[in-house]
Amino acid sequence: MSILSRQPVADTVARLFAATINPTPKPGVRFREIAGRTTEITIETRHGPAAATVYRPEPTAAKPGVYVNVHGGGFVVGHREQDDPWCRYLAAHANVVVINTDYLLAPRERFPVPVEQIYDVLRWASAPERDWDGRRLCVGGQSAGGSLSAAASRMALENGSPAIALQMLHYPPLDLVTATSDKPSPLGSKAVLRPWMGEFFDTAYIPDRSQRSDRLASPAWGTNADDITGIAQALVVTAEFDRLREEAKRYADKLDAAGSLAEYVEVRGVDHGYNIMSDATEITRHMYDLIAAHVRRAIR
Q1: Mapping DSSP to helix (H, G, I), strand (E, B) and coil, where does residue 78 land?
Q2: What pLDDT is stored for residue 61 in this prediction?
Q3: How far, in Å, CA of 133 to CA of 109, rounded?
Q4: Coil, strand, or helix at residue 77?
Q5: Strand order of the sheet with strand 65-70?
Q6: Residue 100 · residue 71 · CB < 8 Å
Q7: Are 244 and 147 in contact (CB under 8 A)?
Q8: What pTM value is reported for the model?
Q9: Cis omega (within 30 of 0) for bond into 162
Q10: How far is it, in rounded angstroms, from Cα 152 to Cα 286?
Q11: What is the 8-class DSSP label of residue 179?
Q12: Which one in 5, 52, 157, 191 has a CA-CA gap of 20 to 30 Å to 165?
């Protein structure tokens, strides 16, 4: 462990990182040809209001289903607009309302606050008074958003509601017990997720290391996923060069054993954040089409 494992240092670095990071997706993965129909809303949660952008598909006679999107950012970066291309793409190709939601960030708020907020957003989205069909509900996110989606799905299982048709976990961190430096990548030091980044992300989010083994923080660690029968069907997508690939695969295996794995996909030749931080247009389009197809099947 380095100085970044000390909470005051990690908190300071997290704030600086969040303030200076450029969230804009690369031009090749912005999909400007999809205009998008959006409105801005606020969703009340037990931890206060969460801002969200609603993306709507073209009107149809039947109520569409709904997909809650949870952005990434190491639990410390809050630019939900980074997922704008993906949300436009999904609304257009899966005929689903997409709720692209914010959540409270570390170090201001730590685990389990963001998990509980996302769960509350799911409950809100599933309510019968909405102008979409909340009985046809999906949740998903990339990176930290995938972790929060997995945790909220676990809460839904344990609480008996809301019913989730699909959880989409896109290169998620699912083992915060194991240090990032102990998670290998074929790219070595050239991998996108650097050990020092994982160290301050995890420390800012959960400074008490004993809490990192919680089932909602590290579902892929130890026996945390040995009893998840009945959890929402899951699409797990990893990247070949990502340091987080192995833990996502472990969780996919647990989901498979529980009868809840829709598909596990490893995207070849790319690293963490490939659909935002690279111009891998065709790879990103292919994966977005695959995910959209899973969403369509889940909510039909």
Answers
A1: coil
A2: 75
A3: 31
A4: coil
A5: 38-45, 48-55, 96-101, 65-70, 137-142, 166-170, 234-239, 261-267
A6: yes
A7: no
A8: 0.98
A9: yes
A10: 27
A11: -
A12: 52
